[in-house]
Design a protein that fits this description.
This protein is mainly β and about 100 residues long. About 5% of the residues lie in helices and about 45% in strands. The protein contains 1 helix and 7 strands. Strands 2-1-5-4-3 form a 5-stranded mixed β-sheet, covered by helices on one side. A hairpin with a 7-residue loop joins strand 3 and strand 4. The chain is extended and about 65 Å long. The chain starts with a strand and ends with a strand.
Length: about 100
Amino acid sequence: PAVMYGHDHDPIHVTLDGHATLLALRTENPLLSIEIEGQKPMLALPKDVQRDVLKGFVRHVDLLTVRRGEKVDVNVALRITGESAPGTIAMTEFNEIEVQAD
């Protein structure tokens, strides 16, 4: 199950295909196209994902609807690769940054 919020509409409760949702959520901040019967497809970003603690499958997703061309702020995880130079220590202050995209 999922709930879609945002843009001048009441929350919409939807059921998502479990396997397709799991695959889509493997990437960070995926832009999802949600098709609801009788309506135009809506674009949405996952706001919160609840997973089963033991099996890891998706139990519930909160989705934030967005419009094409709208600027949105998302947090992107930083992955540091490589090794520090000999005799130095690599230190990171941040593990994610906020990016604005449209």
